[in-house]
Model the fold of this input.
Amino acid sequence: MVGLEIEIPCAFDPFADAKQSGGAGTKEYVHIRIQQRNGKKSLTTVQGLPKELSYERILKTLKKDFCCNGNVVQDKELGKVIQLQGDQRKNVQNFLVNQNLLKKDQIKIHGF
Done:
């Protein structure tokens, strides 16, 4: 009989190489996301900030500059995450770049 090799299809994991290398390549990104709440309400989250930064001081300044409320949440997988009320994605990006905390190419903005 002729030997046939049968390949069993499996689920494709596009992030398999990122898991093996231990991160998103050589760069660490700060992710700014928006989450839809109910109706027109939304929530902006900022994750991946360097650990040496003071999250509470950044949050206090963001709240004061953008006239919104927010808090710092401790997550098991993601670490500390800053949450702000409303769609503050562009404002947060401009703030982080203008204060020389990050460069523009280190920030990824997600959302609709």
